[in-house]
Amino acid sequence: MSLVEYAAADGIATLTLTNPPANCYSREMMTELDAAILTARFDAAVHVIVIRGAGEKFFCAGADIAMLDGADPYFKYNFCLHANETLLRLEHTAKLVIAAIDGHCVGGGLEIALACDLRIARAGAGKAGLPEVKLGVLPGTGGTQRLVRLVGKPKAIELMAVGDTFDHERALELGLFDHLWEAASHEDFHAKVRAWAQQFVPPNAASRAVGLIKRACQTGAEIAIADGLALERELQQRLFESEDAREGLAAYNQRRKPEFTGR
């Protein structure tokens, strides 16, 4: 059975974490997730990536604790290193990545979500948080680094040092989630996510521009502003040379709706 189910249709690649009951990740799942990210990256017909969990109880509850309990420190270090590399690959992919969170999103599951560009959760569907401190460890799949960049140092330290979990409504208030939607069912929620994601898919959007906006922000936030501006100029030049930029400018001058292709 695949641990990461891959499906692509209508410009959207959906990566489903599939390891019942809690969709916990192992080395094998991370290897499959890594491969799925690369598949979506190389597919020119894919413009948006959606990551979700199988079932309606869990997005992902993080690393498989039983697996880690039986592993030696050498394996654990390389396991964390590979997970870091996989999520960096997700961030470096110049396509918009959306986490569709229906169910609990805790520990490493939240760390996966934090590596996505946007996080949409279903109201009342579960808990979120980074409770690793209660196991005597720290969030080791990027949580300490991405959380502090998202909510600031004092709040990030408090959330991780206390280690509590909280409902999705509180996660929205804290800025961990970007949207919180009511949905009649698990299927209804994911249908709404797909419909919302279509706004970033051609012909509705210049998806290449969306992807390079992501790259400018992801990299630019980590470097000096002068270097960030240089990066911005280079990415802009790439867009000036694109078919979508020519179409967008022509459509504006002709007072018509542009028909983007993602090229």
UniProtKB/TrEMBL annotation:
Pfam family, one: ECH_1
Sorted UniProt keywords: Lyase
SUPFAM superfamilies per the UniProt record, alphabetical: ClpP/crotonase
InterPro entries assigned to the protein according to its UniProt record, in alphabetical order: ClpP/crotonase-like_dom_sf, Enoyl-CoA_hyd/isom_CS, Enoyl-CoA_hydra/iso, Enoyl-CoA_hydra_C
Enzyme class: lyase
Entry superkingdom: Bacteria
Record protein name field: Putative enoyl-CoA hydratase
Record-linked Gene3D superfamilies: 2-enoyl-CoA Hydratase, Chain A, domain 1 (3.90.226.10), Lyase 2-enoyl-coa Hydratase, Chain A, domain 2 (1.10.12.10)
Nucleotide-binding listed as a keyword: no
Family: Belongs to the enoyl-CoA hydratase/isomerase family.
Gene Ontology biological process: fatty acid beta-oxidation
EC number(s) reported in the record: 4.2.1.17
Sample GO molecular function, one term: enoyl-CoA hydratase activity
Keyword Disulfide bond: no
